[in-house]
Amino acid sequence: MRKLLRGKPVAEAIAAAARKRADILREGGVIPALAVVRVGDNPGDLAYERTILKHAEAAGVEVRTVSLDADVSQDVLSVVICQINEDPSVHGCLLMRPLPAQIDEAAVCELLDPRKDVDGITRASLASVFAGSGDGFAPSTTEACIRTLDFYNVPLDGQRAVVVGRSLVVGKPLSMLLLARNATVTMCHSHTGNLDTITRGADVVVCAVGKPHAFDQRFFSAGQTVLDVGINFDEDGKMCGDVHADSVEPVVAALSPVPGGIGSVTTAVTLDHVVTAAERLAR
Ligand code: NAP
Predict the structure, then answer these.
(1) Number of structural domains the chain divides into
(2) Which atom of ligand 1 is nearest to 168's Cα?
(3) Which of 231, 232, 239, 266 to mutate to test the pocket of ligand 1 (most atoms within 8 A of CB)?
(4) Domain that holds residue 148
(5) Does 231 sit in the ligand 1 pocket, CB within 6 Å?
């Protein structure tokens, strides 16, 4: 393999550019601020919250955490979201999901003001991604994929891109972003036949299925760029992606690692979105 597509330099470049814009906002009295809303103490949510707190300063963003009990009611959570909508000193909201079973997640997501929807969870944000209008925020992970490909100068125009996974969080919106960059996009899922033949024929393959090491070298061919979006844990509790990196690295031209790949860029993109939201709201 010629290239490991590490997330750290991509994230640092995004944060440095966001910081410059945040500093300009501060000179005008606006401090870009993100509200992180967490329900319960899920270790994954806590880890994500720590990551956001660790990287916020580099992007010039202030973070306020709202931590709610795991048995919080729909009404209380709804009030929290509405307060964030109305608070002019908060420009973005990151709602940790999935939410507990007593909460109607879709209904809560829809309450969020799309202008503060920095992780693209509302229908309005997704509609803007699908329409290509550019006025809403794409889910951070999907934009992290595009930013990573751009950072490493991976061409997309006229290239064949295969996205494995069709969730509304990753697969579908990412396919739209790739299409907007003039890639010829094939979306695959659990009912796709001859998946390995399809992935082998692509220039760029994105794996986003959530199955540890599901993709070994049989799925890839020489010269390909592979993004591994999966965040899984193997039988030893170690974080791993959807791609079996040891098996695939000798075959492809470039691969994003897990950990240290797309996940690291995702946080930087969310913080960058907060700065953009603050700029838009200040107009
Ligand atoms: P999801 O909602 O469970 O969707 C998984 C998708 O993969 C579905 O479309 C499913 O097909 C498809 N799939 C499952 N097994 C498959 C197989 N063997 N062959 C082909 N397709 C298969 O998951 P998600 O929310 O999109 O997340 C996917 C992965 O990305 C997870 O590991 C998640 O943790 C990770 N993730 C990472 C980030 C990040 O920042 N890096 C952010 C979000 C998510 P069907 O539709 O047919 O069921």
Answers:
(1) 2
(2) 26
(3) 231
(4) 140-263
(5) yes
**Does residue 243 lie within any of the structural domains?**
yes
CA–centroid distance, residue 69 to ligand 1 (Å): 28
Q: Residue 276 to residues 141, 264, 272, 282: CA-CA distances in angstroms?
A: 17, 19, 6, 10
Say what the pTM is.
Answer: 0.97
The reported pLDDT for the residue numbered 2 is: 77
172 lines ligand 1 (CB under 6 A): no
- Ligand 1 pocket, mutate which of 229, 234, 256, 262 (most atoms under 8 A from CB): 229
139 ligand 1 Cβ < 6 A: no
The answer to whether residues 151 and 255 belong to one domain is: yes
Q: Are residues 109 and 144 in the same domain?
A: no
pLDDT digits (tens, 9 = 90+) for 15-62: 999 999 999 999 999 999 999 999 999 999 999 999 999 999 999 999
Instruction: Give yes or no: residues 76 and 151 share one domain.
Output: no
- Residue 196: inside a domain, yes or no? yes
**Residue range 216-234, pLDDT digits in tens:** 999 999 999 999 999 999 9
Q: Which residue's CA is the closest to the ligand 1 atom numbered 6?
A: 165
Residue 198 lies in a domain: yes
Closest Cα to atom 18 of ligand 1: 190
Residues 163 and 233 in one domain: yes
Sign of the alpha-carbon torsion through 98, 119, 266, 211: positive
51 ligand 1 Cβ < 6 A: no
